[in-house]
Amino acid sequence: MSIETKTTCPYCGVGCGVIARVDDAGKVSVKGDPDHPANFGRLCSKGSALAETIDLDGRLLHPEIAGQRASWHEALDLVARRLSETIAEHGPDSVAFYVSGQLLTEDYYVANKLMKGFIGSGNIDTNSRLCMSSSVAGHRRAFGSDTVPGTYEDIELADLVILTGSNLAWCHPVIYQRLAAAKAARPTMKIVVIDPRRTMTCDIADLHLAIRPDGDVALFLGLFEHLITSNTIDQNYIAEHTGGFAEAFAAAGALSFNRVLELTGLPAMQLREFYRLFAQTEKVVTCYSQGVNQSSSGTDKVNAIINCHLATGRIGRPGIGPFSLTGQPNAMGGREVGGLANMLAAHMAIESALDRDRVQRFWQSPRIAGKPGLKAVDMFRAVADGRIKALWIMATNPVVSMPDADAVEAAIRACPFVVVSDILRETDTTRHAHVLLPSLGWGEKDGTVTNSERRISRQRQFLAAPGEARPDWWQMAEVGRRMGFSQAFSFRTNAEIFAEHAGLSGFENEGSRDFDIGAYQAIATEEYDALTPFQWPQPAGAAPRITRFFADGGFYHSDRKARFVAIEPPATDRTDRRFPLTLNTGRVRDHWHTMTRTGKSARLSGHIAEPFVEIHPRDAIEIGVAEAGLVEIESPHGKVIVRALVTERQARGSLFVPMHWNDSFAAKARIDAVVAPLTDPISGQPASKNVAVCARRFQASHYCFTVSTAKPRDLESAYWALAKTDGGWRTELAFDLVPDDWVSWCRMTFDIPVDLEPLGYADQASGDLRLAFFDGERLLAALFVARQPVAVARNWAIAQLSASHGNLNKRFALIAGRPGADTIDAGATVCSCFSVGVNQIIAAIRDGCHSVEAVGKKLNAGTNCGSCRAEIRTIIDSCLAAAAE
Ligand SMILES: Nc1nc2c(c(=O)[nH]1)N[C@H]1C(S)=C(S)[C@@H](COP(=O)(O)OP(=O)(O)OC[C@H]3O[C@@H](n4cnc5c(=O)[nH]c(N)nc54)[C@H](O)[C@@H]3O)O[C@H]1N2
Ligand SMILES: Nc1nc2c(c(=O)[nH]1)N[C@H]1C(S)=C(S)[C@@H](COP(=O)(O)OP(=O)(O)OC[C@H]3O[C@@H](n4cnc5c(=O)[nH]c(N)nc54)[C@H](O)[C@@H]3O)O[C@H]1N2
Ligand code: SF4
Ligand SMILES: [Mo]
């Protein structure tokens, strides 16, 4: 008998419902929950591979103090004592919490309560600062509250969907699938993608605006002006429900059409077409994500978009409205509990004395933070200069994900007392902790999360807690109690915390605040356990309400009106000619952030196995790098070395590097070490998408590719990147100075017993060298060395780890570095769900499969989660185009 549990995916903000099944043998499998209103049974590649990422390999299972195992009792006592002593000596602002949108709402609530209400400082900030804070600031300026007005259904109901600064196909794949299905059913629906890069999302776009980096404010100011001059605005809505229109109009009017062309870098025809589409179409949804938020003009971008929706009264109706797509599974829950340094709990304002008094009375707390705390970038600056002396980091990996990451690492290293709560023993951040606290991970922890459409769902426990791992909320409540606040942190269950959180949201609310889930203030444990997904608001005593906001006004500024914001486009001048290129950073389809979980899955690591830079062919020529060569990228803050991926999808003058790779998976690919700590002046969100850098070819003396059953140890070459594969590891390396003796290097790196002799081949003239070690029929490790980037079929070589090598010919084929005539190399993985490679897809196309459906029928590729369908279509198009030439 197997047991099924309904829970929620722990990755992106789509918040898909998952059914986790544990069979008799304890094996876990997952499938989409057909009843969950976010995904109706769909999952993407990351969601589908969840079962592969929950093993205990690398887990932190016991508390540690100074690298030694300790009891919970000792660890918690120490944390409480050090926090209390630091506060007594240096005041409440000398301590800080840096938390995460991957915490559950209950964890987050306790963290915020402890810091703002009991320690009495605003110094709690979160990785949502790097993610959503420009949206929060933009919403609050326009609406008077941090409200996402719409629902996912709106994206399907719209006649025009604008995706700006969003790579929906890869980052919110299930919404992408819902959008693609809606467009297939109703082909008149139009989709516009605004992104400097031609991403996979452009695949379903009718129009792609390859905008200049940070040209968005100008683009939407131009649109605002066009809506007015073409008389598309809604005079009644503006008059009844808004303020500040005249000032916003004057500011937009100051920008000529030609200046908009210049700032956006777009052809006039395209711009006119976009403006015409928007003006003509009543049902418009504008979705935006990090290309908007992560910018020094991020908050203005948000308001420039919202201005256009307010001016046309297009907000809060079916198929209509601005839509901020949130990143993390509980980015929204974190905003609801007030996890940002400049917010109070339950969407109340820290600047408001009334709100502070209300929260303090509700908590019956001895004090309340009197002012906003330090935002992430400033918080780590304060750690660096010694103002913050004790830091607790929870569910985030700032040494990888913060801008100016080397400086952040140095700050953490120098901090007198650092606590890290994580699920892994070894991350780039846990390395610097004085106290390590083992947390429960997905499947073990239990609580609620809120997705992008304000829907609250349960994450449920279906696995036993491993080792001594404990929930994050429990850790903080225990510390709170030990600091002398026993009454306020006497929670026994997460249901009690949720009820208190719901109670605060409804406390003295009466419609004055958007976030109200007072209906749940007395929720009992059984009810909480059975909770089905619901959207807020749900005030006490009211019937379930409409799930959209603002169609009829009712904003949350004191006059209940929205505000237009008068905006100017940002200055664009590059001042330092030594750094002429623009670095853009973001995500790939199958990895999640700093790879602590997705890096465990061979299937997910197969899609893209190395850190890379997308570079335009002409820029590649200029710096003298060819496809598959290595590139060094540098800013005044740091350097990385990554593989070149030469592509016309990238605009000239700009580079794209993913944010995922870190010191656990690569030698020098933590891209945030290069990212400058520049922030939006209003939200404090880092500008991670527009960084001034220079790039040059990285010339190695030798390149090397290896596959091995053991994880390679102590890699010390100028460049290396490793990835999990079926049956072992694959590693790419490049050497300035080659090892004296490759055989001993292999023995040391791959733990090869001394009695095993290698099979080998070396060509002095070309510099090619190959070595393979076998244990009986099994391949332990194979090494391919060349003076140029190694040309060996990667997936074929990886497959050799699981193949039998009893036959001598097979051993020689391996040393020759090529498959025998009877085997084909699958090529780089395209479909992770069914492990289908690019070469297999090309072969199917040659066999006459000329549509995504036909390829799916033949190979299954693209038929499960569908995340790779856009890539399959691109491969078909390029094969057919090549055939037609
Ligand atoms: N596979 C995967 N999915 C994820 C995540 C993950 O790690 N992996 N993380 C989740 C999280 S936390 C987040 S925040 C979301 C992020 O989701 P997205 O925001 O969709 O992802 P990004 O790749 O960060 O950036 C989106 C796009 O913004 C574009 N862009 C850059 N500069 C500009 C600009 O000036 N203007 C415009 N209009 N566009 C620009 C980039 O080229 C990029 O394609 O993804 C979530 N989903
Ligand atoms: N250059 C650049 N930098 C960026 C971005 C970008 O686009 N470009 N994007 C930014 C954005 S939007 C985001 S959201 C951040 C994300 O950046 P991070 O938050 O740093 O990334 P994660 O890898 O998700 O880190 C989560 C950590 O928590 C641990 N963990 C997982 N589950 C749990 C749990 O239940 N409890 C505890 N205590 N720990 C847990 C994981 O092992 C991991 O160490 O990166 C930001 N940084
Ligand atoms: S879209 Fe994928 S990653 Fe996001 S919640 Fe759904 S299954 Fe998880
Ligand atoms: Mo994010």
UniProtKB/TrEMBL annotation:
Keyword Oxidoreductase in record: yes
SUPFAM superfamilies attached to this UniProt entry: ADC-like (SSF50692), Formate dehydrogenase/DMSO reductase, domains 1-3 (SSF53706)
Pfam families given in the database record: Fer2_BFD, Molybdop_Fe4S4, Molybdopterin, Molydop_binding
Keyword Iron-sulfur (UniProt): yes
Keywords recorded for this protein, A-Z: 4Fe-4S, Iron, Iron-sulfur, Metal-binding, Molybdenum, Nitrate assimilation, Oxidoreductase
Entries under SMART domains matching the protein: Molybdop_Fe4S4
Domain of life from the UniProt record: Bacteria
Listed InterPro entries: Asp_de-COase-like_dom_sf (IPR009010), BFD-like_2Fe2S-bd_dom (IPR007419), BFD-like_2Fe2S-bd_dom_sf (IPR041854), CT_Nitrate-R-NapA-like (IPR041957), MoPterin_dinucl-bd_dom (IPR006657), Mopterin_OxRdtase (IPR006656), Mopterin_OxRdtase_4Fe-4S_dom (IPR006963), MopterinOxRdtase_cofactor_BS (IPR027467)
The protein's required cofactors: Mo-bis(molybdopterin guanine dinucleotide); [4Fe-4S] cluster
Stretches assigned to the 4Fe-4S Mo/W bis-MGD-type domain: 2-58
Family, similarity comment: Belongs to the prokaryotic molybdopterin-containing oxidoreductase family. NasA/NapA/NarB subfamily.
Name listed for the protein in its UniProt record: Nitrate reductase
Gene name of the encoded protein: narB
